[in-house]
Amino acid sequence: MNDALLDEIKAAYEKLGMACIRRCFYLHEESGDSACPLVVLALARGVVEKDDPGIRIDGGGNLVLDYFSSQFSESWLYGYLDSFDSVENCTRNPDRAYMDGFAFGEKVRQELSPSEPPE
Q1: Backbone φ and ψ of 9, nearest 5°
Q2: Torsion-angle region of residue 118: left (phi > 0), alpha (psi -120 to 50) or beta?
Q3: How would DSSP label each residue in 20-31?
Q4: Which of 3-12, 59-68, 85-94 is predicted least confidently?
Q5: Alpha helices in 1-119 (DSSP H)
Q6: In 33, 51, 52, 100, which residue has its Cα 20 to 30 A from 27's Cα atom?
């Protein structure tokens, strides 16, 4: 699953012409749009659209987080986000799904070299 999912993410960035970013879900700038891999994948799958305000919300109300929680698991999603955003494993007793998500997030971060959002 992970290799196919990574390939789908890469294809989504290419198709949408967006840049990869971390610690931010979606950023619209005059120079072009940037999105985290989950947002770009949700955009490519037609789950959300660029003008949907729900893709900019940090937290549990985010449409993208809700979608991927249902596709994988909440634990996998937290592991992925922690790793992709370069947060140390912050779960005291991580389960298998968290660790799988954490490993995938690290792989995605290494392969896509995301930029940091502007301050």
Answers
A1: -65, -45
A2: beta
A3: EBSSSSEEEETT
A4: 85-94
A5: 2-16, 37-44, 63-71, 74-84, 96-112
A6: 100
